[in-house]
Each structure stands twice: as structure tokens, then as C-alpha cells.
Fold this sequence. Notes:
Strand order of the largest sheet: 1-2
Distance between the termini: 48 Å
CATH topology of the domain at 62-243 and 278-294: Ferritin
Number of helices: 13
Amino acid sequence: MNFFKIIDQLAEVDADVLDRFDSRRAVFGSLGTLAKRSALAATPLFLGALFQKAYAGTTSTPVDVLQYALTLELFEQDFYKKVQASSQYMGAAAADKAAIDQIKKHEDSHVTLLSGTIKSLGGTPVTGVTFKASVFATLATFNGGTYATSQLGIAQLLEDTGVRAYKGRAGELLGTDLLTVALQIHSVEARHASHIRTMRGQLAWVNPGDDAAAHPTYTSGVTGPTSTTSPFGYGIPAYTTPSPTENGNTTQSGVPITTGLGAMYSASDAAAAFDEYLQAAEVLDASRAGGLVGA
């Protein structure tokens, strides 16, 4: 992929394209730094975030992105608080309880960090985001049965969604000091997801063979505005159709992974090699986290 050739071609039909991204110096200065670290400019995540910033109809501020992250962290924090207070947790193995306790401490730290950062930027942190008590009451076990009846099963869905959510909006923080913090939290959430999956006897990464593979968290996209009506009070970018909508995707950047790399790979292996990002409208959709937020 010749990134700079793409920019040149865009500039021929849109002379303001660089101004849409940011100042010329800021964009290419960021590119130089990021390329040294991870060749990010050659990835679909980077390009998607950059062009969404340039052409999206709804513009979000860095504070909006942090509010979105805080919403997810408050949501997970309340979920683990409910787990710790449940009778199922009380009867769990000591190692499992210790793991949940540590994850809860991480969520507490994330909430404190994000809230403080939002305040330092002149914003008012979102509050009152909780996991629906009525849904939590239906979870019959700590770790047994299926994801639908297990506290850890729901934790897996939440953590996987959180990882994909951070991945979906990190690009909006390019060129700011906030990007490092967001990616550090993202990496912690990824470790949470991996450990929860291991506790459940699943593979440590999203895989079409998971017992929850058919859950809407992994299979449902949205075709229009989010169906969530919760008035969080901060900017949510409009949904754009090109986003991958599930973790069963076997094509990346137009390349069929199963047949296009000079070797044959199974559809399962191809899908497991990538963790698709989610847009905010997808995360807050009723089929995912949006359907679990409430009293």
C-alpha cells in the first residue's frame, strides 16, 4: 500500500484534504513518529480513523472520546462490583476471585484516570452508568453453563467489546498526548479479555469456535444510527457502513486470507488472526453494551 500516493491522488480532487486531516506539518509529523514504532500508517485501522476524521459528518472532540471510554469503564466497573457482591462469586475458587478483584481494581483506576483527565480538559465526566440489575439477576453461575447464564460469560462479552471499542476510536486521538493513555488502557482491557477467556476454558483470543460465537456481540452490525437512546451527552460519530461488522471476517484490506497469501488457511484461523474494531454506534447499539446499560 503506497499511503503517500493515496494522499496525492486525493489532493488532485480535493485540494483541502490535508486541512481536513489536520495541518500538513502535524499529520506528517505524526506519521513519521508512528511509522518508526509500528508502521501504523500502512494499517487499515490508521487509514480508517484518518479518513473518518477527514470526511465524517459528525466531529467529536478528544473529550468526547474520553467520555465514551469512561462510559465503558463505568459500565464494567459496576458489573464487577455486582459480581463481587453476588453469592455465586462468594462460592468461587480463590484464584478466580483474586482475578476478578484485580480486574475490578484496574477498572477503578481507569475510571479515576479518565475522570481526572476529562476534568483537567475542562469537561464534566459522565456519571451514573450502570449494568442492568435485572439482567445481572438472571446469571445463574459464576463460571458454568453457557455465556448466557454465567457471570464470567458476560464478562467475556464485555471485555471483548471493550477491546474492540478502544481500537475503534484510538485513531481519533492521533497527534495528542491522550493517545498513549488510551492505548495503555486498551492493552489492559485486552489482558482482561484474554484472562477471562482462559478462566472459562476458551481460547485466549476471539475465535469462531467460541461457545459465544453466535452472540450478537460478535455477529451483529448496525445499518443505521444506533438504536440506543441513552442520552450520554457527548458526541458520537455517525455510523459508516464500511466498518467490519463481525469477528468472522476472513478478508483484510481486500486480501482473502484463506487463499491469498501463498498458503491455505482455514476460515477459523483467518478470522482469529484479527480483532475487528467497533465504531461507537455499534458498541452502544442495543445488541451490545447499549442494551445492558440501565438501572
